[in-house]
Amino acid sequence: MSDDLAALSRLLAEPGQPDTLFKAFEAATKRLVGHELFTLLYVDGEEVARIYSNRPTEYPVSGRKTMGPTLWGDHVLKGRKPYLGRDKAGIRWAFFDHELIESMGLGSVINVPALYDGKVVGTINLLAPEGFYREEHVAPVERLAPLLVPAFLAARAAARAA
Q1: Hey, which residues does 37 pair with through a beta bridge?
Q2: Residue 128, CB half-sphere, CA atoms under 13 Å: how many?
Q3: Which DSSP helix (H) or strand (E) runs through 85?
Q4: Distance CA 77, CA 61 (A)
Q5: Pairwise CA distance, residues 80 & 124, whole Å
Q6: Whole-angstrom Cα distance, residue 70 to residue 142?
């Protein structure tokens, strides 16, 4: 874990951001906890945008969209807490697109908010087959989450300027 933290920290200074960091972060989380679908969303008030996806055919990088009120949003975005969905019921509770998720053979999820100045600026989203994730899988992702704060803030600033 500390090796991943150090390696990712060094990458922040490298050119080619944010993709360099995103790809390395995806690889680190795959090693640490595993995943089949990995996405990153930046958060800007009530709006979110997917800025990275390891499966762009099913989950493409997309423009900003308004995040309506949801229980998931209350928990992760407003509550600033990770969400662990261990099974398909947890997926259905959290996501309107649960049918697409399930059609990909996925049935468990970890969502970790990245926090800056008391606010969620992005979420790290890992999905795997049903029953894959347990409570102990959340903490390693939480420890790495702050490293993505600069990239989430840069993505949000770029979108605001566009």
Answers
A1: 127
A2: 16
A3: strand 83-85
A4: 20
A5: 12
A6: 22
Give CA–CA dist 20/24, Å, rounded. 6
Domains, the chain, ordered by start? 2-56+66-161 (3.30.450.40)
Amino acid at 59: Y
Q: What are phi and psi of 93, to 5 degrees?
A: -65, -35
The whole-angstrom separation of Cα 138 and Cα 71 is 19
Nearest-angstrom CA–CA distance, 21 and 18: 5
Query: pLDDT tens, 90-145?
Result: 999 999 999 999 999 999 999 999 999 999 999 999 999 999 999 999 999 999 99
Q: Nearest Cα to 104, choosing from 90, 85, 88?
A: 88
Tokens 């150090």 sit at which residue?
6
122 with 42: CB under 8 angstroms?
Answer: yes
pLDDT value, residue 1:
59
Interatomic CA distance for residues 106 and 36, integer angstroms: 8
Residue 52 in tokens: 């990275």
